[in-house]
C-alpha cells in the first residue's frame, strides 16, 4: 500500500468547475468592523492571563506579560456563513464540545496536541475554529498537513463546502497540483509539500498556524516536520512573529511527542476529545487464519449482507489488486444496475450460501461481546454471530460495491462519501486508507483481514520487498472503530483472538524501517549539519544515518569527512559532512538522491530529456502490467498468455538493437514512454501493449514537473521536454549509460566468472558489493540473454529469487573513471580479471587506467 501512497495520483478534480458558482465572500469589510472589538477583547484576555492561574506563573509578572503578549493571539471572531444543515451536522461532532478548551490551549501555548478518535471532527473542524479565531487574518494562513494526498484533497473540498467559501480560499496543494491562490486562508497539503516550503522559507512566514494531522501514522515526513517545527515555532515567537503548532492524533499514544525532552522542553498540553463512539462488538474468527483471506472476506461479506439488518459494510484488505478482485466477486454475487434498481429487486439471482455454517444467535451486546484485547482465548460460540432474524433483510437488496485505495481517481474516491442509491446497501472495499484518514458515513459492519501490505527494506543488502504482514493491535482497533460512528456496529475479524494477542501493540514509525538518504540530504540543505542531533520524535538508527551520509558522500552531495581510524557508527554519524554545491542542486530535485545525481549530470550531450524520462519511469513503481499472475480459469489463462506474449514482443522492440540494447531495462522504459507519448498516452494504447495507463500518465506529469525543477536549478540549460521525444542517438545512449552508472554506482554487480563458480547456484548469477548471496537478471529483463559482465541495477526485489530490477550494462573501464570513490587503486593483483567486486564491497583495479573524477562534467565518452 505504501506503493500506492508514493505514487498516488489525483486527476485534477472538480475544483475548476465549481469555483465560479461560489461567491467570494467580502471578508475585508467585516474584519475591519471587528477590529476594534478584537483589540479590546485582546486586552481583556491579556489581563486574565496575568490574573488567572497560568502554567507560566513562575516568571516574574513583567516578563510574563510580555510572554503572554507574544504567545496570545487576539481573541476575535470571524463569522462564517454556514448552512443550517452543516451547522446541525457539526454540532454532533465531539470536537465541537471541546472548542473552548482547544482554543484556550492554543492561545496559551506555542504547541498543543489534540487526540480524538477518527471521525470526531478534528480535520474538518479545528481549521475552522482557528479561522474563526482570526488566525487567517493579516495575510497569514492556516496550514494543515496530511500524510495522504487523498485526505488533503477531499478534506479541503469538504471544509470549503462547510464554510461556504470558494476553493481558492480553502485550498489544497499536493505534489502535482493544487488550487492555492493569493486569497487562500486555509491550506491543506501533504507533509512533503510543507517540507519543501521549509526549504524555501525556514520560518514559514506566511503561516500563523501549522496543524500536523494524522500524527499517529508516524509517516517519515510528519516526524521530520514535527522535529523542524519544534525549532521553528520558538524561533518565530522570539522574533515577535507568533506561530502555533497543533499536532493531531487519532490515538492517545503521543508520548513520543510530549515526553521527548529533545523535542519540547516543556511538554505540550494534550487536549483529549471524547469521541461519541457507539459500541462495536468484535467477533473473532474461530478458525486459524487462512491464506485465502480475500475469499474469506467474500464469504463474510455475503453473509452479513444476506443476514444482517441494513447498514454499510467496510472491508479492509491490503492492496489494490485484492480490492478489485473482491469488488468484482461481490458485484457478480449481488448485481447492481443503476437504471433498474427496482426491477433488479425481482430478477436478481443470488448465489447459494451454506447457512449451516452459522448459528443464528440473537445479537446481544455485552454478552457475546468480545471487545478488542479482552477476548477470551477460545473465541467461544460460533465464528460468526450473524444473529438477528435473517428474514429482517431482504436478501435481494443489491449491494452497492465501491473500491477505495489511494491510487483511485478522486471522482471515484468521492463516491464513498455520498449516500448509496436508495434501496441498496453500501459496501466499501478498502485498503488501510480507510483506517483513520477518511471516515465513511453509515458504516455498521467492518470486515478486517488483519493484514497490511508494507514495503520492507533491508539496509544491509539494499533489497526491498512488499510483504503482507499482520497489522498492529492499535490498527485493528482503529479498523473496528469504523463500525461505530453512527450507531452500534460489528467488526468481524478474519483471525482468532489468539492471533490478535500476538500482534504488536503499535505500528512502528516508518522512519525506523526505510533508508533515510533523501531525508539526510534535505536536512543538510536546510543547513542541519549534525543530523544525528536532530530532534526526531523517533530517531533512525545511527547505522542508518551513517549509511545515508556515506552514500551522499559517494554521490558527491556531501563533502568527504576527514579520514580517521576506526570509529563507531555513532562517532561517524556525529562527524556530519557539509553539503556541496552539487548536493544543493540535487536537493532541489523532488526525487531520491541517486536519481537527483543523474538529473544534475544530465545536461551533458543533450541527454536531459532522456534522463528526465528515465528518472520519471524509475520513480513510478511499475510501468508494465503483471501477466505472470496465476489465472483463475482456462479462458483467462489463454488471454494472459496472449497479452504476456504481446508485452514481451514490445519489450524487445523498445529495447532496440546494438548499442541501445546495452542501456537495458532503462532503454525499454525510455522506449515505452516514447511510444506511449507518440500514441497520445491513451488507455487503449496502454491496454493493447501491456502498459499501466496510470503509471504512464504519472510519468507524463513527473516529466513536466522535473523539467520545471531542472530549469529552476540551472536556468542556463533551458530544457524543454517535448513529450514526443526522438529516440536517443548511439552517442547519447553511451552518455546515458554513464550518467546512470554515476547515479547508481553503489548498485554495481558483476557476473560471477566461470572460474569462481564453485556452486551451481551461481550459474548466471551476479555478485553485488553489498551482499554474499547471488542475484539474477530477471527473465523479463532486456539483458537476460546478454548477461553483461558489469551491470548497475535500480533495486533488488526478492520474489522467487533475488532479482535485479532496472538493469543497465556498464563498461568495465568506466568504473574507475566514474566511481573512483568506490575503487581501490593499488598494484596489479594476481587476479584473472583486472576488476572484481570483493565481498567487502571494494572494486579493485589496475593503476594503469587514466582516471577522472565525476563532478559536473562527464569525462569524454571515448575510451582512453
Ligand atoms: O479528523 P477526524 O477523523 O477526527 O474527523 P473528520 O475527518 O473531521 O470527520 C468529521 C465528520 O465529517 C465525519 O463524521 C465524516 O464522516 C464527515 N465527513 C464527510 O461526511 N465527508 C467528508 N468529505 C469528510 C468528512
Ligand atoms: Mg482526520
TrEMBL record:
Keyword annotations: ATP-binding, Helicase, Hydrolase, Nucleotide-binding
Bias type Basic and acidic residues, positions: 36-46
Listed EC numbers: 3.6.4.13
Residue span of region Disordered: 1-71, 358-390
Domain Helicase ATP-binding: from-to ranges: 103-270
GO molecular function: ATP binding; hydrolase activity; RNA binding; RNA helicase activity
GO BP: maturation of SSU-rRNA from tricistronic rRNA transcript (SSU-rRNA, 5.8S rRNA, LSU-rRNA)
Biased composition (Acidic residues): 1-28, 364-390
Reactions mediated catalytically: ATP + H2O = ADP + phosphate + H(+)
GO cellular component terms given for this protein: nucleolus
Sequence ranges assigned to domain Helicase C-terminal in this UniProt record: 289-527
UniProt similarity note: Belongs to the DEAD box helicase family. DEAH subfamily.
Protein name per its UniProtKB record: RNA helicase
Species this chain originates from: Fundulus heteroclitus
Amino acid at each position: 500500500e505504501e506503493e500506492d501512497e508514493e505514487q498516488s495520483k489525483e486527476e485534477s478534480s472538480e475544483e475548476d468547475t465549481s469555483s465560479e458558482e461560489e461567491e467570494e465572500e467580502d471578508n475585508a469589510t467585516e474584519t475591519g468592523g471587528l477590529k476594534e472589538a478584537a483589540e479590546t477583547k485582546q486586552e481583556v484576555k491579556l489581563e486574565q492571563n496575568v490574573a488567572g492561574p497560568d502554567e507560566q506563573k513562575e516568571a516574574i509578572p513583567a516578563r510574563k506579560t510580555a510572554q503572554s503578549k507574544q504567545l496570545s493571539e487576539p481573541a476575535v471572531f470571524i463569522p462564517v456563513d454556514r448552512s443550517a444543515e452543516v451547522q446541525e451536522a457539526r454540532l454532533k461532532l465531539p470536537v465541537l464540545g471541546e472548542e473552548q478548551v482547544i482554543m484556550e490551549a492554543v492561545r496559551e501555548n506555542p504547541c498543543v496536541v489534540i487526540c480524538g478518535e477518527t471521525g470526531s471532527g478534528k480535520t474538518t473542524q479545528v481549521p475552522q475554529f482557528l479561522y474563526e479565531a482570526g488566525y487567517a487574518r493579516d495575510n497569514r494562513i492556516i496550514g494543515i498537513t496530511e500524510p495522504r494526498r487523498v485526505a488533503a484533497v477531499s478534506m479541503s473540498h469538504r471544509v470549503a463546502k462547510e464554510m461556504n467559501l470558494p476553493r481558492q480560499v480553502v485550498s489544497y496543494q499536493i505534489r502535482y497540483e493544487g488550487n492555492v491562490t493569493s486569497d487562500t486562508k486555509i491550506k491543506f497539503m501533504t507533509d512533503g509539500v510543507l517540507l519543501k516550503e521549509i526549504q524555501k522559507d525556514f520560518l514559514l512566514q506566511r503561516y500563523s498556524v501549522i496543524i500536523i494531522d494524522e500524527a499517529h501514522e508516524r509517516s517519515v515526513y510528519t516526524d521530520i516536520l514535527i522535529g523542524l517545527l519544534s525549532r521553528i515555532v520558538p524561533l518565530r515567537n522570539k522574533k515577535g512573529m507568533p506561530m502555533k503548532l497543533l499536532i493531531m492524533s487519532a490515538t492517545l499514544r503521543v508520548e513520543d511527542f510530549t515526553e521527548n525532552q529533545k523535542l519540547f522542553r516543556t511538554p505540550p498540553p494534550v487536549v483529549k476529545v471524547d469521541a461519541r463512539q457507539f459500541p462495536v462488538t468484535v467477533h473473532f474468527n474461530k478458525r486459524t487464519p487462512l491464506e485465502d483471506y480475500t475469499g474469506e472476506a467474500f464469504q463474510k461479506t455475503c453473509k452479513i449482507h444476506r443476514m444482517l439488518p441494513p447498514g454499510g459494510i467496510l472491508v479492509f484488505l491490503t492492496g489494490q489488486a485484492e480490492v478489485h478482485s473482491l469488488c468484482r466477486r461481490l458485484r457478480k454475487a449481488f448485481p447492481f444496475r443503476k437504471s433498474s434498481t427496482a426491477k433488479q429487486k425481482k430478477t436478481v439471482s443470488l448465489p447459494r450460501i451454506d447457512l449451516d455454517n452459522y448459528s443464528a444467535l440473537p445479537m446481544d451486546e455485552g454478552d457475546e461481546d468480545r471487545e478488542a484485547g479482552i477476548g477470551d482465548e477460545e473465541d467461544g460460540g460460533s465464528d460468526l454471530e450473524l444473529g438477528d432474524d435473517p428474514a429482517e433483510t431482504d436478501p435481494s437488496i443489491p449491494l452497492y460495491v465501491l473500491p477505495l485505495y489511494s491510487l483511485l481517481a478522486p471522482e471515484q474516491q468521492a463516491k464513498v462519501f455520498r449516500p448509496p442509491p436508495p434501496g441498496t446497501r453500501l459496501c466499501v472495499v478498502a485498503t488501510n486508507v480507510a483506517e483513520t484518514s477518511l471516515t465513511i458515513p453509515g458504516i455498521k459492519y467492518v470486515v478486517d483481514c488483519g493484514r497490511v501490505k508494507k514495503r520492507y527494506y533491508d539496509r544491509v543488502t539494499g533489497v526491498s520487498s512488499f510483504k503482507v504482514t499482520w497489522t498492529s493491535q492499535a490498527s485493528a482497533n482503529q479498523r473496528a472503530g469504523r463500525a461505530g460512528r453512527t450507531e452500534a456496529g460489528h467488526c468481524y475479524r478474519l483471525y482468532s483472538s489468539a492471533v490478535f494477542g500476538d500482534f504488536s501493540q503499535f505500528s512502528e514509525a516508518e522512519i525506523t524501517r526505510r533508508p533515510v538518504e533523501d531525508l539526510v540530504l534535505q536536512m543538510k540543505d536546510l543547513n542541519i549539519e549534525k543530523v544525528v542531533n536532530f530532534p526526531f520524535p523517533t530517531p533512525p538508527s545511527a547505522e542508518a544515518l551513517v549509511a545515508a551520509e556515506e552514500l551522499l558522500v559517494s554521490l558527491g552531495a556531501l563533502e568527504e569527512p576527514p579520514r580517521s581510524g576506526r570509529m563507531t557508527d555513532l562517532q561517524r554519524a556525529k562527524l556530519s559532512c557539509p553539503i556541496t554545491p552539487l548536493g544543493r542542486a540535487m536537493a532541489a530535485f523532488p526525487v531520491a538522491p541517486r536519481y537527483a545525481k543523474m538529473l544534475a549530470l544530465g545536461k551533458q550531450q543533450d541527454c536531459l530529456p532522456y534522463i528526465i524520462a528515465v528518472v520519471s519511469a524509475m520513480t513510478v513503481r511499475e510501468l508494465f502490467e503483471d501477466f505472470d499472475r496465476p489465472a483463475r480459469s482456462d479462458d483467462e489463462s489463454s488471454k494472459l498468455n496472449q497479452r504476456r506474449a504481446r508485452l514481451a514482443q514490445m519489450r524487445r522492440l523498445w529495447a532496440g538493437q546494438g548499442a541501445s540494447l546495452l542501456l537495458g531495462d532503462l532503454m525499454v522504459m525510455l522506449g515505452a514512454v516514447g511510444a506511449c507519448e507518440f500514441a497520445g498516452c491513451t488507455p487503449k494504447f496502454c491496454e493493447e501493449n501491456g502498459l499501466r495507463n496510470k503509471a504512464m500518465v504519472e510519468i507524463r506529469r513527473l516529466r513536466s514537473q522535473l523539467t520545471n525543477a531542472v530549469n529552476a536549478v540551472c536556468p542556463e540549460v533551458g530544457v524543454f521536454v517535448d513529450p514526443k521525444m526522438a529516440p536517443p542517438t548511439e552517442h547519447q545512449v553511451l552518455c546515458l549509460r554513464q550518467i546512470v552508472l554515476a547515479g547508481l554506482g553503489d548498485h554495481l554487480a558483476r557476473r560471477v566468472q566461470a572460474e569462481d563458480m564453485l556452486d551451481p547456484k551461481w550459474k548466471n548469477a551476479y555478485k553485488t558489493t553489498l551482499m554474499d548471496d547471488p542475484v539474477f537478471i530477471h527473465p523479463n529483463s532486456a539483458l537476460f540473454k546478454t548477461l553483461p559482465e558489469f551491470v548497475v541495477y535500480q533495486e533488488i526485489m526478492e520474489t522467487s529469487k533475488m532479482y535485479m530490477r532496472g538493469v543497465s550494462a556498464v563498461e568495465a573501464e568506466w568504473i574507475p573513471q566514474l566511481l573512483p570513490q568506490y575503487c581501490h587503486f593499488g598494484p596489479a593483483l594476481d587476479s584473472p580479471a583486472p576488476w572484481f567486486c570483493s565481498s567487502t564491497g571494494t572494486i579493485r583495479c589496475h593503476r594503469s587506467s587514466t582516471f577522472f573524477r565525476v563532478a559536473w562534467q562527464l569525462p569524454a565518452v571515448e575510451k582512453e
